[in-house]
Request: fold
Amino acid sequence: MWRTLKDYCYAFTAKCIGLCIARLPRKLALFSGVYLATVVFLLSRRQRDKACKHLEQSLEIGQPIARRLVRRSFQNMGKNLMEFMQLPRMSVETLHQLVAFEGREHIDKVLAQGRGAIILTAHFGNWELLGASILAHGYTIRGITRQLRSRRLDAIVSSYREKVGWQGIDRDRAVREVLRCLNRNELIAILADVDTRTRGIFVDFFGRPAYTPYGPVAFALKTGAAILPTFIVRQPDDSHRAIVEAPLPLQQGGGREEDLLVNTQRFTKIIESYIRRYPEQWIWMHERWKTQPK
Reply:
């Protein structure tokens, strides 16, 4: 009973804060996000130190530089949260002004083949805004999501997404629904840069083996759908640049295990390349290398 009451209080508080943030001017909301994220950075020693360690090892840099980048990473997350809370009140015109969209021709070209496409992205930049921007350009897209521990909080997050037309597919029941969407020539968004419980394979990520979901490759090989590496990069003025790259060239015919390994490594290297260019826009506090080969 106590857990249910606490869950309700958290969800109610989050909903009230979201309603207040949604009505703030954008600059004030972003300032609030930076301020709150900085406080979290200073107080959350465990998460801060973990992120610094990951960044030091991955980019082979010293602690002072790593700490500055991690601080900016926390602040980027704070801005992301504020933008997400304001998302339901953003018009299509506002999204077009906020996000410069590049590479739309790649989407149109693969959809013309009638097999759908997989938008391969990461927890990078403001990935929630990326989905909203794709929807604002008239495409039908759904994403594989994981339910939050708090059902009430998950319902609030889902309602924010649904207000811009975004529908999630539960990760634990994704296979059939993803295949249906691709057969309807739709877009499927998959974030494939975290250590999860889904089926995966070990590939190199910043010089270390990282357990990586091979779902995007498995779906592509099964259906013939193209994989489009797609990322959103926050600009210095807090506008965004969405980049849709050309389809990932897939190795086929080397045997299932080899094809999964080679192609998963290929898309992971693309994700790594963006993180190397913009390290402050990735989630370094995530336990990316937690699972290791036995």
Remarks:
- The chain has a mean pLDDT of 91.
- DSSP finds eleven helices and nine strands in the chain.
- Residues 2-281 form one domain.
